[in-house]
Amino acid sequence: MTRDLLWETVLNPGTGKAVEVLTGQVLRIEQVEEGGQCADFNCFNLHDYKEHFHTARTRHVHGMTPTTGAFLWSASPRDRPMAVIVTDSVGSNDIMYGRCSAWIYDYQYGLPVHANCHDMQAEAQREYGLTPDDVHDSFNFFMNTGIDSHGHPFIGPNLAGKGDYVEVMALIDTLMIANVCGADVMYTNNFQYKPLRIAIYQGTEAELAEQQDRAEMKKLSTQRTVDQFINKQIKATRELSRDTSYVPQFLNTPLVLEDVPVSVPEGDLELLDRLVHTGEFGKDRSEALRWVFHLWWIENYMQGAKHLNESAS
Amino acid sequence: MSDEKVTVRLNQQQIELLDNTSKRHFEGRSREEILLTALRDYCAKHGIGS
Questions:
Q1: CA dist., res. A300 & res. A292, Å (int)
Q2: Nearest chain B CA: its distance from A224 CA (Å)
Q3: How far is A285 from A290, CA to CA, in rounded Å?
Q4: Does B45 reside within a domain?
Q5: Which domain holds residue A147?
Q6: What is the pLDDT of residues A26-66, one digit of tens each?
Q7: ipTM score over 0.95, yes or no
């Protein structure tokens, strides 16, 4: 696909760059030299920096290694796609590790002065008036990770080669910040920094329309905006103090339990007893029926990922 | 063994899910019928009791 090039640069090791990527534009992050370089990535709503990319929602929806077609979601209460991965020539990304920071290299390596993603992100976004506290957990493009049999995350060799790239299309006006990941003493970048090319292209109308037509782009009332907040003003002082006029307004409370009686025929009682006997459906028939209703509902009607252990079935 | 009463304890959100399921997929059948359908379908799919 041929797109118009709007802007490009090469990021040297130890640096990052904040760029405005507007709706329908595409940010490409590309391997130069021999490849094998991770790129940390943050994303803000250009018109409201409090809306930012959220690894947890993205992980929830797309799993541990998002790739082509995965949306980059904003944190709750906004909960909407900010951008989408339209190309990924490697398919090995990480959304588990946050971002490396000065503390990691000091604590784990005894190196108090060391290039790190948090500081690079903070310095790059300082151009837009943001503080180091505004850096959020990164999407780590080209980072090869997994979880071992003990449940611990691990980092493996970087699989990207020269010329490999990812492309992210903005679905709202964004500030995107990419940096050359600072991990030269871990597997992340195959123990050596390489520069990265970043470029902004104009996406086609058809590309944008194709993404906007997807089910996840449907607007729901639960994707909150500032006008729905009880507190609308961003707190300007760091010190916290109690509001003595505060009255709790928790959603949908009180949560009240209701007993639903079910006349269960003999054959179905046996099913319930078998479920209870497995030890995996609660402690009695009542719990088993509640558990099995919800599991059945998830399997048959739940939108998106089911979050059931497919390895166990 | 004849029929026995089993009481399922649900909060209002879970009740809403149950009632929506009945309206959208089972033509308004009773909560009891939906719960029993879930039990039978789930067990059949997962080979419980077969």
A1: 12
A2: 20
A3: 9
A4: yes
A5: 4-218
A6: 999 999 989 999 999 999 999 999 999 999 999 999 999 99
A7: yes
